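Record type: monomer structure entry
Structure origin: computed from sequence
Chain ID: A
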Amino acid sequence: QLRDGHKALEHLCDRLNVEPYGTTGDGQFTVQPSECLGACADAPVMLVNDRQMLSFMSPQRLDELVDTLKAQA
């Protein structure tokens, strides 16, 4: 919730057209809200595929990430 983490979640869900805990129709993305990831100074942060933690996830960075992941599919 630090540094508008809830807004980042809303943006990502809107971009992917899913609700929190939902999966996109093509099965490529599932969005799960998380508890603290222990990186307050880098908020908002997210964990991708339970492996890679990304910091400072603004709407622009979220859009870039989604585009990159879609291109890799």
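Annotation 1: The radius of gyration is 12 Å.
Annotation 2: The first helix runs from residue 5 to 16.
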